[in-house]
Structure formats: structure tokens, C-alpha cells
What does this fold into?
Amino acid sequence: MTPSVRRASPADAAALARLRFDFRAELGEPTEPSAAFLLRCESWMAKRLDPSGPWRAWVVESPAATGSLWLQLIEKLPNPVDELERHAYITSVYVAPPARGAGAGQMLLNAALDFCRQAAVDSVILWPSERSRTLYARNGFTPPADILQAVLHPGRSYASAGSVVS
Ligand SMILES: CC(C)(COP(=O)(O)OP(=O)(O)OC[C@H]1O[C@@H](n2cnc3c(N)ncnc32)[C@H](O)[C@@H]1OP(=O)(O)O)[C@@H](O)C(=O)NCCC(=O)NCCS
It folds into this structure.
């Protein structure tokens, strides 16, 4: 069976939370027990998958391939000149290890980029893993020449980041 990609719905939240856990656990030892994480992540994702919000996700499915990609639309301020008014942030692009290198990641990216073109998105940003840079380069991603980034918490520990304000 050829893998197919579809837009995720709130009913996919549990499976997507599992993929998110697997993705992050590949990169470092989890500090949160998996059961607690899966519960809060599923709840977070179920709410975010409501299409009235800024988040979208796609899943790739076949007996051999499971994977997902998340995208957040970022609003720009309205402006009076001829300029598109939103960007997009792609994150958590993940295909389960046995299926890698067979085109599933490209299919997820195609779905997300097609959506962005139709949604009049200006720029798409993402933070690649080292090994995935070739995939993104083939799809038009280049290092920016014109944005600045300030990393406020170089240790990236949630606990060390202090209080969360809204
Ligand atoms: C990145 C990833 C989603 C791509 O999915 P895929 O189905 O393997 O990708 P495709 O078969 O469509 O394309 C192959 C490309 O994927 C990337 N890729 C392949 N295996 C990879 C791996 N183990 N880790 C990271 N990227 C990988 C490479 O860019 C590769 O291109 P290349 O062989 O010409 O260098 C998938 O490999 C993965 O989940 N990797 C681990 C998580 C990750 O690095 N995510 C990206 C963070 S934004």
C-alpha cells in the first residue's frame, strides 16, 4: 500500500501525541513520564486541531509509514501595501524510523507547502535537524539573510525559564 497523507483532525490527537513523544525521545532523554506527557499532549493537540485556530497537522499513513507534520500560521499585522499577511512555522516533522528515506517526509512537506501556497503564506520557517537539511534544501529552504534571532534561555530548560506570563 502506497503511503497517503491527509489533514489531521482532533480524533488523531492520541496518535499524534505518541508521534510527538517518539520524536522528542529520539533527541534526548525525556524528563516527564510518558503517560503524563501523552495525556497532556493529547489534550493540547485535540484543542489545537480545531480548524478555527492557527494550527494544522498532516499525518502520513500506510502499514509501513507513520508520521506527522505540524504547522502554525503566524499572522502579520494588516498593512496597506501589496504584501501577504501571514507566515507559517513548520515543526515536529517526524516519520517513524523503519519508514525513513522512502518519501513519506517529502509527502508531508508537499501537503504543508501546498496548503501554504493556497493560504497565501509569505515565508515558511522551520528549525531542521542536521540530517534533514538536504530534504528542506530540495524544497527551497535556505538560511535567512534578513532575520535576527535572540536565544533568551540558551540552556533551553523549561524549569530554568522562570514564570510564564500571558
Ligand atoms: C526528517 C524526516 C521527517 C524525513 O522523512 P523521510 O520519510 O525519511 O524523508 P524522505 O524519504 O521523504 O526524504 C529523504 C530525506 O529525509 C532526510 N532524512 C532521511 N533520514 C533521516 C533521519 N534519520 N533523520 C533526519 N532526516 C532524515 C534526509 O534529508 C533525506 O534526504 P537525503 O537522503 O537526500 O539526504 C524523517 O527522516 C525523520 O523523522 N527524521 C527524524 C526527525 C527529524 O530529524 N525531523 C526533522 C526535524 S524538523
